Amino acid sequence: MSKFDVDEVLVRKLAQLLKDTGLSEIEFESEGRRIRVNSGRISTTMSGSMDSSVTQVAVPPPAAASQPEGPPAGALTSPMVGTAYLAAEPGAQPFVKPGDRVTKGQTVLIIEAMKVMNPILAPTAGTVREVLIADGQPVEFGEALMIIQ
C-alpha cells in the first residue's frame, strides 16, 4: 500500500477556492494523485491501484463569528444565481437607493441569469435601509441583496 505526502499549500489553496466560490466540494487530480476538499473533510487517493490509500483529515468548521445566522430582518434575498444590476442600464440612475420608499411589487433591481434580465420586486412596501451588493456583482441564491423595512 503506497501513501503520499499531502501538499498542505495545495490543500489550503483548494480550501480558499472553495470558500471564495461558495462550492461545497472541489477535486484536483495530477499524476495519479487526487485531492478532494469539501466543507467537512479532505480525502486523498492514489488512483490506478486496487491497494489505494485513503486518508481523511477533519477540517474544522469556520469560526462561529464568521457564519451568519441567516439573512437580516427585512432582507430581500436573491431568488436565483446571476449578476445583479442596480440600474436598468449602465450610467442610468439606480432603481432605488438607501432612504427611498418603495411599494410592494416595485422593481428594485434586476438579475441577469442565462442572458435573461429578471426584475426583482419589492416583497413589501417600506423604506430601503441598506443596499448590500454592488452594481454588476455576481449573486447566489438566497444571498441578501438589500434591507427593506
Describe it.
The protein has 149 residues and is mainly beta. The chain has 1 helix and 12 strands. A hairpin with a 7-residue loop joins strand 3 and strand 4. The protein is elongated. The N and C termini lie far apart (62 Å).
Topology:
Layout: H1 8-21, E1 25-30, E2 33-38, E3 41-46, E4 54-58, E5 75-77, E6 82-85, E7 101-102, E8 107-113, E9 116-121, E10 126-131, E11 137-139, E12 144-148
Antiparallel strand pairs: 1-2, 2-3, 3-4, 5-12, 6-8, 6-11, 7-10, 8-9, 10-12
Distance between the termini: 62 Å
The helix/strand class is mainly beta
H/E topology pattern: HEEEEEEEEEEEE
How much strand content do the residues show? 35-45%
Q: Low-confidence spans: pLDDT under 50, at least 5 residues?
A: 41-59
Number of helices: 1
Average residue pLDDT: 78
Radius of gyration: 21 Å
Assign an overall shape. Answer: elongated
**Biggest beta-sheet profile:** 4 strands, antiparallel
Quick structural summary:
The protein has one helix and twelve strands.
Characteristics:
single chain; mainly beta; four-stranded antiparallel sheet; 1 helix
